[in-house]
Amino acid sequence: MDAKVLIESFAEFARSKNVDRPTMIRILEDVFRAMIRKKYETDENFDVTINADKGDLEILRIREIVDDNSEDIWDFDKISLTDARKIEPDFEVGEEVYEKIELEEFGRRAVMMARQTLIQRIKDLEKDLLFNQYEELVGEIISAEVYQILGREVLLMDGEGNELILPKSEQIQKDRFRKGDTVRAIVHKVEMVNGNPRIILSRTSPIFLERLFENEVPEVYDGLITIKKIVREPGERAKVAVESYDDRIDPVGACVGMKGSRIHAVVRELQNENIDVINYTDNLDLYVSRALSPAKVTSITVDQDKKRISVFLKPDQVSMAIGKGGFNIRLASRLVGYEIDVFRELNDIEDEEDVVLDEFVDEIDGWIIDELKKTGLDTAKSVLSLSKEDLLRRTELEEETIEEIFRILKQEFEQ
After folding, report:
1. pTM here?
2. Domain extents for the chain?
3. What topology is assigned to 3-127 in CATH?
4. Residue 348: pLDDT band by 50, 70, 90 thresholds?
5. Nearest alpha-carbon partner for 58 in 85, 84, 28, 78
6. Using alpha carbons only, what angle is made at residue 47 by residues 42 and 48, rounded to the nearest 5 degrees?
7. Which pLDDT band holds residue 390 (cuts at 50, 70, 90)?
8. SS3 52
């Protein structure tokens, strides 16, 4: 393979990978200089000129002519007068010899290795470019097409044929994909694994929800409304705290849109995730009340040292505060940054007939009582009013533990 064929085939391959001309020339020169170092131990006194468009290559070896008896005759950049005159009979001591080195002199094996090296360098460059391209897109929404569905992940293809990965852990539980589907997600992270870029997407990240709001709500995109915080139970429920720096703009109304037109588009994308948009405020009591919406809070007690908040509600508001599966209270706690304990307010008659759970501390472990309180169950009758199945769903208690709780509480009223 001569130099022209080698360079032209490489240039064509490089152009197909969208490699710019300066980079292509640099890679060619690096590979040819590596060949020179392998054969001559150094490339310091070599000049390499490449014209990729025409496939031209010129390698010149530059050496200074010294007397045959000179001590420097063995230096890499020196040549004896006798050897110099074999190249050109008119040479004299002190002049420089520019000797052209043909590619064939490196041997067929070296040339074939150079070809493989060139192709590998482009592939490595392509991987680096892909890594850098997607690293700049981290946190941004992209669309890609499903081409393979595996047990633990879905493989997608972008418009340029690059493989992207949507792990099971980053999918909304209700997501169901088929080959050929177009999927929207954010670029979650980009990492190098064994020299190959691995691009991870996410549909469960709060940032995905934030980007969807930016797409659907111009005021958010323009910065007139700020999203202060987002918490999610992907596919189930989310709470979004928003704030407007312009008193003329209602941030909640703008995000919801006329008859819910704006938020409906977001909800559909998130598999009907229930989204609560609330006004952010620095007033902690008010913020907690809004976070527990739609429940109406009667009173709030804050323990700053323990980062806990006790919330008191009417009995008919407790289940709303906790929400289906406990999602509402968990998200509210994460939104305000405090652990929220829900308590029922009892009237005088109920106070006389009922017994607070703290009275059973000798028979029921304290951590179990705390677990019940987290779900708004702070009295014996409030626990007994629920079924075993309800308690299993609301708490993390074992079935045997719940049966024992029922036994102890019922025994109190039987007495």
Report:
1. 0.69
2. 3-127, 137-203, 205-280
3. N Utilization Substance Protein A; Chain:P; domain 4 (3.30.1480)
4. very low
5. 28
6. 100
7. confident
8. coil
